[in-house]
Design brief:
The two termini are 42 Å apart. 0% of the residues lie in helices and 36% in strands. The protein has 2 domains: 59 residues, no CATH class; 99 residues, Sandwich (Jelly Rolls), CATH 2.60.120. It has no helices and 11 strands. With 169 residues, the chain is mainly β. Strands 3, 5, 8, 9 and 11 form a 5-stranded antiparallel β-sheet that branches.
Length: 169
């Protein structure tokens, strides 16, 4: 394989690889030959998209190394009746939330709960014009297979949710 090249900000052609050992002192040296990196290798901070040869097969997983995520945005002027935040999980599996952001126009208590059981999985009191990022430190797993996550507020008023999730057994 030829050494990958790129154009710098002045239009000069630069090489991404020097000796390959990372010992030549060049800031342009890429310490990994991108054509021989094993599948599943963590490359965060090591390989930029500009370093990948055109036509190469590259899979991006969101950078955290986990399963593919679905992102949903839900807005309601009144969520005093619980409403779906996610789609249904894959049959026989549970929803796993990895990121949840909520903002409200009116002060109140907001909850994340299960679709039919209404079991509350997380909740927070918010001031008017308040926002909260549920810091899950990993994930929030639904307690019932085949059910969506719902959001609910104790007060009527604008409420917006952004949630990233996937499903697993």
């Amino acid at each position: 394989m030829t050494n990958p090249t790129y154009l710098d900000s002045t239009g000069a052609t630069r090489s991404r690889k020097g000796t390959g050992a990372g010992t030549d002192g060049s800031p342009d040296v890429l310490h990994n030959n991108i054509d021989v990196i094993a599948a599943g290798t963590n490359l965060i901070g090591k390989v930029g998209l500009d370093q990948v040869t055109a036509g190469a097969n590259v899979v991006l997983d969101g950078g955290y190394g986990g399963p593919a995520q679905t992102q949903a945005y839900v807005y309601s002027a009144d969520m005093t009746t619980a409403a779906a935040l996610t789609a249904a999980p894959t049959a026989g599996q549970k929803i796993i939330a990895t990121d949840i952001l909520v903002s409200v126009a009116v002060a109140g208590f907001v909850t994340v709960q299960m679709e039919t059981s209404t079991n509350v999985l997380a909740g927070v009191f918010l001031p008017a014009s308040g926002a909260y990022n549920f810091c899950l430190r990993g994930l929030l797993k639904g307690d019932t297979a085949d059910k969506k996550l719902f959001g609910k507020s104790t007060t009527a008023g604008g409420i917006a949710w952004t949630i990233k999730y996937h499903s697993e057994a």
